[in-house]
Write a structure and sequence with these properties.
This protein is an alpha/beta fold. The strands form three sheets. Strands 3, 4, 5, 6, 7, 14 and 15 form a seven-stranded mixed beta sheet that branches. It has a six-stranded parallel beta sheet with strand order 10-9-8-11-12-13, with helices on both faces. The chain has a two-stranded antiparallel ribbon with strand order 1-2. Helix 3 crosses helix 4 and helix 3 packs across helix 9. The protein starts with a strand and ends with a strand. The mean pLDDT is 97.
Length: 341
Amino acid sequence: MSTCKVAQATAAGGPFEIVEREAADAGPGQVAIAVEACGVCHSDSFFVDAALPGISFPVVPGHEIAGRIEQLGEGAQDQDWQVGDRVAVGWFGGSCHHCTPCRQGDFIVCPNLKVPGWTYDGGFAERVIVPVDAPARIPDALAASDAGPMACAGVTTFNGLRRSSAQPGDLVAVLGIGGLGHLGVQYAVAMGFETVAIARGADKADFAKRLGAHHYVDSTTDTPVADALQSLGGAKVVLATAGSSEAIAATVDGLSHRGELVVVGAAPEPLGISPLQLITAARIVRGHPSGTAQDVRDTMAFSALHGIRPMTEVVPLDQAGEAYRKMLAGAARFRMVLTTG
C-alpha cells in the first residue's frame, strides 16, 4: 500500500505534525487528487480550534486545493473527468443533492455541505479524496499555487460582487485589502465598477492604487468611513471582507439609497446596525457564502482572462505549522500556500 504525507493537528489548537498515512483509494462517486498546492485560509482555524460542531481529531485542514486527478472511483467516469485533469476544490467540497436548497439548485447553502478539513480530510496533504461534484477545472493559464486560493478567497469575493446589485460604473467599496480584499479590489475594477478600497493607515494607499482602486479611504483618520463614501456619492455596494463587526457596521451610512452591504468577512460579534439606518434609505444587508464548483470555475476563467492573481507566499507542506501561524498573526502577504512538489 502506498503512503502520502499530511499535516495534521492532533488536538484543538494544537501544533501541526507531519505524518505518513496509507493512501486510500477513491470510493464510489469520488475522485482522488494528487495535491500540488493548498492555500491557508483563516477559516481553517474553525477546524483546528474545534470551533464548529462535529470536529474530530486528528484534523487535516485545507480547502483551497489545487492538483491533478489521480484516480476515479466507480461512477466518477460518467462526470467527464479523466486521470490527469487539473482541478481545484474549495469550501464547496460537495453537497447532499436531496435537501430543499440542492433540489432548487442552490448547492452552496446545502445544510449538509461537505467542506474539506471538516467533513473529510483537507488539502494540507499530498493526496485528498473528494466527492465527484467538488472539483472545478483549472484553466491552463493558472498555476496551481494561484488556483488554490481562487477556490475560496477568489470565488467568495468574485461571486459576492457579481451577485450584488452593482452595475458597471457604480461606486463599489471593498472593506479590507488583505487575503480576500486584495482580490476583491481587482475583481471590482475588472467588472467596471468605480472602486474604493478601505483599509487602516495611509501607508496602504499606494498598494490600493496598484491593485487598481480609483479611491482610497483610510479608516483611521478623523473622517468617518461613511462620510468619506458619501463624499464620493455613496456606495451602491460595500463588499465587507474585513473580519471586524465594528468596521463593517461603520460603512452602512456610506451606502447610497437602496445600497447593499455584502458581508463575506467572518466575525463572531454582532453588527451594530439600527433598523432606522436600513429603513429610511431602503438599504440591504446580506451575508454571502463561497461558491459551487461551477462558480469556482467561473472565477478562475475570469481571473485568467483579466490577468488577476492572488498575492501569495509559497512554502513546502513540511512548513504547514509556520505558514498557519503566520496567517493567524495577520503577517501573510496575502495568502500562504503550501506546495508538495
